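Hey everyone, long-time lurker, first post.

I ran two proteins through the pipeline my lab uses and got sequence/structure pairs for each. Pasting them in order. The first:
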Amino acid sequence: MQLAVEEINAKGGIHGRQIKLVVEDSGYDPKKAVLATQKMLTRDEIFIMAGSMGTPTVLASMPLVLRKRLPHVFPLTAAQQMYEPFNKYKFAMVPPYYHGMRSGTKWMVKEKGKKRVCILYQDDEFGLNSYRGVVDQLKEMNMELVAETTYKRGATDYSSQIARLQAANCDLITLGTIIRETVGAMAEARKIGWDVDFLVCQAGYAPEVAMLGKGVVEGLYGVAFTPIPYYDTTNNEVKAWMDRYKAAYDADANIQAATGYQVIMLTALTMQNAGRDLDADSFVKGAEQIRGYKDMFGSPPLSFGPDRRLAAEKTFLGQVQNGRWVTVTGILDF
């Protein structure tokens, strides 16, 4: 996000105005998220909340922004509440966990012949978004969820959950998990010698899963929206961006960096569309003008409109192969 802001400002900003990026850390704690948002709204007098992260934290903080009639845009969570119910000032960039898990489950059943689908998910609204997608897709295919089990946010032991799913004779475990939980659940299954297939929601489609999990997560399927950039396989435009990132921060650009860059570039495009007389309402109109926007990373096209607050609904599946994520399907629907 910082790189995008610096590049935009170096070119003169938006209609002659410089962008100022204000960042606070919620620690993935809803209470801290509320306090940070209150600080940004009062002391920093922010105009837009862009790219806030985490389902429970955003659900706690977003109402404060909307109450001020300010734009809350492109949060880094795929929960359905990011665009539903309709609110003039909220826009979502990422396809919902619900949509992704529906299309992913459908593909695993139809293409991989899975018959006994189960789920492990975080015991909060984040996990429930994935759960609902799996259940609804199975119902549409006249199937039932064989078994379900949950864990509390911050948990590190998944032995009882995996034992329960193994006892149910699952042949696919869907995961409403993030990074550590994905690795932990699969490690437990492998430890007891259970070689079952796993499908994780978008939150687990991260290079850290492959890096930290090593051989434990080989074969893991993941719902994805933006392909993880690997320098030796990506296009020249992304390579140049990765070089700029490396030069600026002495670190390798990853999918999180790509997503943060996307957020600011989409926000900047919206402000550009809004014109010189920028306020919350002109910003909304600027977003509603976006049709078929394509980023350099290879994500599906993004579009908004007067009645459309979700930019994209389509996802694809990746799989961990030889320590990195490889795209294994085209764009999926359900």
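...and the second, right after it:
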Amino acid sequence: MSSPENSESAQKEINYYKERLKKLSSSCMGLEYRNADLTKDVLQMSEGLKVIAELQDIDAESSMDELLDGLSESINVRLRMDVTFILMPYQDKALHYQPKYLKAFGGYNTTGVLAKIISIPEDFFNAKNAIIFNHETTEDEFVLRLREELELLHFILSPIIHDDAIFGYIFTGRRSQILQTDKGILPYHQNILEAIGGVISAVQNQIDRNVILERLVEKRTQELKKEKELSENLLLNILPYETTQELKANGFAKAKDYNIVTVLFTDFKNFTQLSAGLTSQKLVAEIDFYFRAFDNIISKYGIEKIKTIGDSYMCAAGLPLAKETHAHDSVLAALEIRDFVEKVKKERKRSKKPFFEIRIGLNSGPVVAGIVGIKKFAYDIWGDTVNVASRMESSSEAGKVNISESTYNLIKDDFICTYRGKVDAKNKGEIDMYFVEKGKD
């Protein structure tokens, strides 16, 4: 039988071990809680790294709009945030930012927040700082304004730095009801957002490089386009458009038969004698002056210039595209060339300067047209029609437009002509010829 003293001692020892067991149990529970919190932190940090990995895997061709829009959604899902958006510069106003790419759960005032313009204090902007806010009260006016205007009590505002300047700000936060125990926005959230900002900057660098490359490509494309246009224009100065297209497509152009065209020749009377008193530069300048005017005149009537030989100018209507008005157009052009030369003659006479007089001849009939050779090739026409047209010019008189009977029959209803009778043409015998005086009213 135990004594009272032994029973009391045993009870004290029991109570001691009960207290030790209670403290040990409490400590183990606290450790489990801390392990659970740590597990949650590690899990969220892992999710944050996934956001960064997703950004790094985006297509380089994606636009920044697509990237930021997807980023807001990813931050909400991966970091378990309620609201995420990007504050982007507002127009050209310094230190003013507008919420964009907003993604939110629940009843957040999305429409109202997107319509707001947030002004950033200059000292905060220059410091390139971040804000983590988890408290109900604060004396910081900027934080208070963010809390009220962006309608969130627990948030982080983290700058996106690009080329050592503020590209924008990431704003993300949670409502109180989804906060972890005794936790809101944590420092590692800032670390994750800073890393995200770095990836955004790298993507923007790539976009900038792509833009520069695109501009260089566009510039070079425009240069090549101009060079091509120049080459095309130079080629069109040598060959008709249809012939150039055939030549480029096939490497050659076939000669073509034309049933009827009108060939026009001009020649300056007494050119050799008059040119003897001019310097070579002055002579070339004079011919260029007249032939430029002839070019403009025949272009107006859709006539194809064939070539010039010395002071002789040759063109033809009705090729390379056939047209019924070839003779009519050629005579109109011939009269205009005649009048232009006569006008210059009168002006030169008044100022006692040398002048040229012109003979013009036309003939209508069949020809063969095409290009020959592979170097310095030129578009040309062949056939007796060309030979007769040349005789019409050499048989003409200064200031006159001389036409053959074949051309006369095509234009006689529209022009006043004077029959010259049969005129002897070199190597052609006698040919009926007509002077065209003017068009009929």
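Reply from user beta_strand_b:
Welcome! Quick read of the second one: The longest strand covers residues 357-371. Confidence is low (pLDDT under 50) at residues 31-38.
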